[in-house]
Write a structure and sequence with these properties.
Elements: H1 3-10, H2 14-22, E1 29-31, E2 34-36, H3 39-52
Antiparallel strand pairs: 1-2
Length: 65
């Protein structure tokens, strides 16, 4: 998987993906100037990131809709 694939799967920005690479949250391989990720590593990161993300409550529509 490349950067774009991972950003879509994890629903993160390219800058957040860079942070995950930098801090070791998501292992990667680099070929020339392109980064690649193993699908099993992305799935593991998805579980880890999901644990760290706070639950987001659903906002109520105005006027009780």
């Amino acid at each position: 998987m490349d950067n774009q694939d991972v950003c879509i799967v994890l629903n993160i920005s390219p800058r957040t993906l860079q942070t995950y690479r930098d801090n070791g949250t998501l292992p990667y391989s680099q070929v020339n100037h392109k980064m690649y990720y193993r699908p099993e590593d992305v799935q593991a990161a998805l579980r880890l990131i999901g644990e760290k993300r706070p639950e987001r409550g659903r906002k109520e529509a105005p006027y009780g809709r």
